[in-house]
Write a structure and sequence with these properties.
globular, 23-stranded antiparallel beta sheet, 7 helices
């Protein structure tokens, strides 16, 4: 028994050392390739241009900033989103123990999440439950990506890489990564659990000088693809005595997830008027995709999809003489894609391999003028060139361009401040010599006071054609125009808060919506109207309660999320222990036939529990998912694996 235990420990240590070596190699390579930057940093010196008084003041500011940065990760608040539901800061991200944005935003009242696996880059978060790709994610620059993509979800970015998340009007998001710091820091997250799970996320950030920051990350995520059965462990027998066995998870298959991504960036900011960022990103991603072939429920057939995304990006912002400014961004992305399925050769099962590739080059420019103190106007031009090699050997070439004008006005009243903005332009989409041109525009207003915020928007935009990689549809609409409008209200009191939201979407065709999902299968139809009601209570004597209801005009009519937490501080210290009980519910959806089964639409009852201990900037956690051991599916082809267990820690390290 001891030898077996030692063998498991040694295996984990070898895996951790392997990933650390890869990350160290990445950092060393970056340093070797950038000797000029290092030399410049050394010549500049951290105290250049400062006298003795200035050096002492700068040292004191370093100490104060270091303390404030540590305090961020030693926070004691456990009432998520109470302060501002439209801004998710570093303390909330750190304390959530989330591995990905969909896991983090799955508890937010304005979002629902769709799982292809326990933790996978295919998973997606859905603002207002939108299955249409009408929302965008911006990662600090001009370029944005949609929340729906055929071969990847929203979780290629790990939660460990994100410092802040801002919720913009209409369900769009803006990620902010670590900015320029004055002291080195690192974050580490490790999780282990069922299906030989191993997740390790590491990020390092270190200022090389007063104005130069280097950051690097390495994220590894693995779940074995294998069959499971609750026979012999009394789980199925215990639950079958209290509930209908037809809804219990008994036997099934967990799809493979094996993903490793690495990245690095250099940020140069000589003063407040200019900054430049260089980004590098590479991934090795393998996922099993369910196929629409009739098989026994616990033996669904899968294809193995392997992707190797590479991204190089350049961002530069500069204030010009007078009140002018200019932002420039360039991007290159290349992603080979391999699909392996089972074929038949003279009665023998043989692997069949198909290859595809996605290539994108993009350039974006924004320039404008600051008018007086409260107004900004300008122009944005974005151009992308895409080349897609399909599995059948054909090639699809497309060119997208979005010139637009924008205007922003800020105002400050006695008890309220706000912003009014508007954008308008045209979307040019040329695919295989066929040009489509559609206008787009949007207008929005934000009003906020000390305890409340109101936001409203209305827009017209377009969904571009999604390349399916299997076959190219000549007569599919290149641009699918839709209308979107909404209103949000948030109010907080001493122990209570209330979030209300409403969104209206019209015009997105079902065919374009389904085309943005794997196998052309969306979880449900895109709703036109969605109402969100989310009251919260706490914290009172360590007790906090939050619930939300997302009501739609099509099935599922109701999606709810409820969380009850209790926090205790041992002997009145800042450290705390928290117990969290959460419950998610989706009502019945429209029936759909996939792999010979039609029960993908049954209601979702998902009860989870987590216990965590927060000691300064170190957290230990233990999670039990699907405590009711229910068999359900967020999307056809992917049953829940039933009762699962996970445990791990995350740690913020400074200096």
């Amino acid at each position: 028994m001891m030898e077996c235990y030692n063998g498991v420990i040694c295996g984990y240590l070898r895996l951790i050392m392997k990933i650390f070596r890869r990350t160290a190699f990445l950092i060393c390579t970056l340093l070797v390739l950038c000797p000029q930057l290092l030399s410049a940093a050394e010549k500049e010196g951290i105290h250049s241009g400062l006298d003795s008084t200035g050096i002492n003041e700068y040292r004191d500011s370093l100490i104060e900033r270091e303390r404030s940065r540590v305090d961020v990760f030693e926070h004691t608040g456990t009432n998520f989103y109470r302060q501002n539901p439209f801004h998710i800061p570093a303390p909330v991200i750190f304390a959530s123990d989330a591995k990905s944005p969909s896991e983090l935003l799955g508890t937010h009242p304005l979002f629902s999440s769709v799982r292809f696996g326990i933790s996978s880059s295919l998973n997606r978060f859905l603002p207002y439950g939108n299955v249409a790709p009408i929302n965008t994610i911006r990662q600090g620059g001009l370029f944005s990506s949609t929340t729906g993509s055929l071969m990847s979800g929203t979780d290629l970015v790990s939660a460990n890489e994100i410092s802040d998340i801002f919720l913009e009007n209409g369900g769009n998001l803006s990620y902010r990564r670590t900015g320029l710091l004055t002291v080195p820091e690192a974050t580490l997250l490790w999780e282990n659990g069922v299906f030989d799970e191993n997740i390790l996320q590491v990020r390092f950030s270190r200022p090389l000088s007063k104005h130069l920051l280097i950051s690097a990350f390495s994220n590894f995520r693995h779940f074995d693809g294998k069959s499971y059965s609750h026979d012999g462990n009394d789980v199925y027998f215990t639950y079958s005595r209290v509930t209908d066995t037809s809804h219990l998870s008994h036997k099934g298959y967990n799809p493979l997830t094996n993903e490793h991504t690495v990245g690095a960036s250099l940020a140069w900011s000589p003063d407040k008027r200019q900054n430049t960022i260089l980004d590098f990103y590479y991934g090795d991603l393998s996922n099993e995709i369910a196929l629409d072939k009739e098989k026994p429920r616990d033996q669904l057939e899968h294809a193995l999809i392997s992707r190797y995304p590479l991204r190089l990006q350049f961002q530069s912002s500069r204030d010009l003489p007078g009140e002018w400014f200019i932002d420039v961004e360039g991007r290159y992305e290349n992603e080979p894609i391999t699909r392996i399925t089972a074929g038949d050769e003279n009665g023998r099962v043989v692997p069949v391999r198909n290859d595809a590739r996605r290539d994108e080059k993009g350039l974006a420019l924004r320039s404008g003028l600051k008018l007086a103190n409260n107004d900004t106007a300008g122009i944005v031009l974005e151009v992308r060139r895409n080349t897609d090699d399909l599995f059948d050997g054909s090639k699809v070439l497309s060119l997208k361009s979005r010139p637009e004008l924008f205007y922003r006005h800020s105002f400050d009243l006695k008890s309220m401040e706000g912003t009014i903005g508007a954008d308008a332009g045209a979307f040019f989409h040329d695919m295989e010599g066929r040009l489509s041109v559609r206008p787009f525009w949007n207008a929005g207003i934000n009003l906020s006071s000390e305890n409340s915020e109101i936001r409203g928007y209305v827009k017209q935009d377009n969904i571009p054609y999604t390349v399916p990689y299997d076959s190219f549809a000549e007569n599919q609409a290149r641009l699918d125009m839709y209308y979107n409008a909404g209103l949000e209200f948030f109010r907080k009191w001493e122990k209570l808060d209330l979030l209300l939201g409403y969104q209206f979407v019209y015009g997105a065709s079902d065919s374009n919506v389904n085309a943005s999902w794997i196998n052309g299968q969306a979880p449900y139809r895109q709703p036109r109207s969605v109402l969100v009601i989310a009251p919260g209570f706490g914290e009172w004597n360590g007790l906090s309660f939050r619930t939300s209801a997302m009501i739609s005009d099509c099935k599922p009519y109701l999606k709810t999320s409820t969380a009850l937490s209790y926090t205790v501080h041992p002997v009145s210290t800042r450290e705390y222990i928290r117990a969290l009980l959460s419950f998610d519910y989706w009502s019945e959806r429209e029936p759909v036939m996939f792999a010979g089964y039609s029960d993908w639409n049954i209601p979702i009852y998902n009860l989870n529990v987590e216990i965590s201990a927060h000691i300064r900037s170190f957290r230990l956690f233990y999670k039990i998912d699907n405590l009711l051991n229910r068999r359900f599916a967020y999307i056809p082809g992917y049953y829940s694996p039933g009762l699962t267990f996970r445990w791990g820690f995350n740690w913020f390290i400074q200096r």
